[in-house]
Design brief:
The chain is α/β, with parallel strands linked by helices and 637 residues long. It contains 22 helices and 12 strands.
């Protein structure tokens, strides 16, 4: 379990930040991102998008989701057929009224047909409403299944796969694509079902009136078929491209807004504005192409309506003239065909929504169909909390090695601090041990068991990683904590909070542990959010914990409080700490210094200071900056 999303950057030690402060100077650029994020955000970098399902795969997935809902589908279809069939009685009744008027039967003769028209309208309305509700319920059930499958798979995607596609690709699928399908399920699906049934049953009604009306009405069909073929051939690729373009735009927005400090510090505003403009124009141009196609589609449908109605009226004139049918029957036929305008246009217009929903459905199914994480046939069980890394190497971009033949052993229960300059590989090593990334070479063992024998699930049970950026989930604070251990009692929650020194402020919240936090609720401070993450760690109780600069953003005073909380949370378990503050490293059992992806020093704080190497230089720089700060404060005083 991870308590929050890991950050993808290695920040400098406090020795480079200034005396006793975690805050960066305003003129100092933020610490750079890791090589992976730099590669993904670099202009012109090609993204390996997440897969999109084929048509056959989408249909197979839909059939799977519909299993077990056959009764609901049959009942919904039956009710819609009944409502549509009853509604078709309107045209014959109106035709009968025309005949009564032509024959001058008097006002009394119109009473019964008019009453029947009212009954038909009410019955049809009730049946249509019920049928539409049942269809919508079926659609919502399928949508819920699709959402669950997508989320379940998306949460287990390897981070490398998400980074290769760009976060915007995944975000656009879980937001805009789901919204498109939801809109289609709630609006388009019931409307399309009613329209399709109306078309079929109306054509049957025309044939019942007089079979010669049917071929006249069908003269419109060739134009409609050609129009649909013309539309589908052009619309399908445009909608698919528009989805990709929207994902690229969201990816760029996330990069530009999320990395605004880096953009400003390195004066990248113009290049990011240019990329936003380019991707916005691409999405806009594809949307306009789609509108142009839809406009051309409906102009062709209007021509089909003209041809069909002219043919039906002409046929009615001929049949009435030779006394084959009455004026009322011809009127009913014309009304039947005219009543086809809306359902035909609606059904064909809904092809627009269907194309868009189909493209979105394929994108969601593409992620849902990704193979599950491979599990070892005989998963091992760690015997303790030890960590052993042998000849470990890793690169985010081919040819750009981040870690080189790293060897490291951490005894069970030992607390080790990772120290090094930005880009030294501290965070990468922490992520590899936590199973966030797969190493390119070498071996990682947890509790004496190779991580390949543990499998991804086994690694997650053995290691908890807390990053610099902690997500506070929306909801009661108690439920946020129970994400780490769902069966935890209120006493367990209070004990975990008390252990990390957070119980006092937690109980002081407006509703205590029942206080709603996160988006739309009570906003926690940075220190409180990190306290929350450390309490989750205590509840999860893994044998190995990794703190990736988990106290870096809290400010000096807050960082010292959190460092104490971190020590309490790590008690009784193996701790691997990516140290932001050198005093934090000084309290560790052992310090490991990385430089350019290699371990260059290892030992206790005292041993490394006495050795006069890289760590000693960092410690001397920190000590001098602290002394200067003290002298400046005394002078000002």
């Amino acid at each position: 379990m991870t308590s929050g999303h890991t950050t993808a950057r290695d920040t400098t030690d406090e020795a480079t930040d200034g005396p006793g402060s975690n805050a960066r100077r305003q003129d100092e650029p933020p610490a750079r991102e890791t090589e992976a994020e730099e590669a993904m955000t670099a202009p012109g970098t090609e993204r390996a998008l997440l897969p999109t399902a084929t048509g056959a795969e989408s249909l197979a997935a839909l059939r799977t989701m519909l299993r077990g809902h056959g009764v609901l589908a049959v009942v919904a279809f039956t009710v819609l057929v009944a409502g549509t069939g009853i509604g078709l009685l309107t045209a014959p009744l109106l035709g009968h009224i025309v005949d009564l008027v032509v024959e001058k039967q008097g006002a009394q003769a119109l009473t019964v047909p008019l009453v029947l028209l009212i009954v038909v309208a009410l019955t049809r309305g009730a049946a249509t409403a019920l049928g539409s509700a049942l269809v919508a319920r079926l659609g919502e059930t399928v949508l819920a299944t699709l959402r669950e499958r997508f989320i379940e798979r998306a949460l287990r995607l390897p981070l490398e796969r998400v980074e290769a596609a760009g976060s915007g690709d995944l975000v656009s699928r879980v937001t805009s694509d789901v919204s498109v399908i939801a809109k289609s399920v709630r609006q388009a699906l019931p409307e399309f079902s009613r329209s399709a049934l109306t078309i079929v049953l109306t054509l049957v009604g025309l044939a019942v009136l007089d079979w010669r009306f049917l071929p006249a009405a069908l003269l419109a069909m060739p134009v409609q078929v050609l129009s649909v073929r013309w539309y589908l051939r052009r619309a399908a690729p445009v909608y698919a491209e528009h989805r990709v373009a929207t994902g690229a735009l969201q990816h760029q927005l996330l990069d530009s807004v999320g990395g605004v400090r880096t953009v400003r510090a390195f004066r990248l505003s113009d290049s990011h504005t240019g990329l936003l403009d380019e991707r916005s124009r691409a999405a806009r141009d594809l949307a306009l192409r789609g509108i142009h196609i839809v406009t051309g589609f409906f102009s062709r449908l209007n021509l089909a309506e003209f041809i069909g109605l002219a043919a039906v009226l002409g046929t009615g004139f001929v049949l009435v003239d030779n006394r084959s049918v009455s004026i009322g029957t011809a009127t009913a036929a014309a009304l039947y065909f005219h009543s086809l305008f809306n359902p035909v246009n609606a059904a064909l217009f809904l092809l627009d929504d269907a194309q868009s929903a189909g493209a979105s459905f394929a994108r969601l199914v593409g992620v849902s169909n990704l193979p599950a994480e491979s599990a070892p046939q005989r998963p091992g069980t760690p015997v303790d909390g030890s960590v052993k890394v042998s000849a470990l190497s890793h690169s985010y971009v081919p040819g750009h090695v981040v870690l080189r033949d790293v060897d490291l052993e951490v005894r069970s229960g030992e607390r080790v601090a990772l120290v090094g300059a930005s880009g030294a590989g501290k965070t990468t090593l922490a992520k590899l041990v936590a199973g966030v990334h797969e190493p390119d070479g070498g071996q990682i063992s947890l509790g004496g068991v190779d991580t390949r024998e543990l499998g991804a699930e086994g690694v997650r049970r053995a290691v908890t990683l807390i990053s610099q950026e902690v997500h506070v989930f929306a909801g009661p604070l108690a439920e946020d904590l129970r994400l780490a251990r769902p069966e935890a009692t209120d006493d367990d929650l209070r004990a975990a909070l008390d252990r990390v020194g957070a119980l006092e402020w937690a109980e002081a919240l407006p509703d205590g542990l029942a206080t709603v936090v996160g988006e739309g609720g009570h906003q926690l401070t940075v220190s409180q959010a990190q306290h929350l993450a450390l309490a989750r760690l205590v509840l999860a109780d893994p044998p190995i914990a990794i703190l990736d600069e988990a106290t870096a953003d809290a400010g000096s005073a807050g960082a010292r409080v959190l460092e104490t909380a971190a020590l309490q949370a790590l008690e009784g378990r193996t701790g691997l700490v990516v140290a932001h503050r050198l005093p934090q490293a000084a309290t560790a059992d052992r310090v490991v210094v990385l430089d350019d992806g290699r371990v260059v020093e290892t030992g206790t704080h005292e041993e490394l200071v006495a050795a006069g190497g890289r760590y000693a230089s960092l410690w001397a720089a920190w000590s001098n900056s602290r002394q200067e700060s003290t002298e400046q404060g005394a002078t000002k005083g």
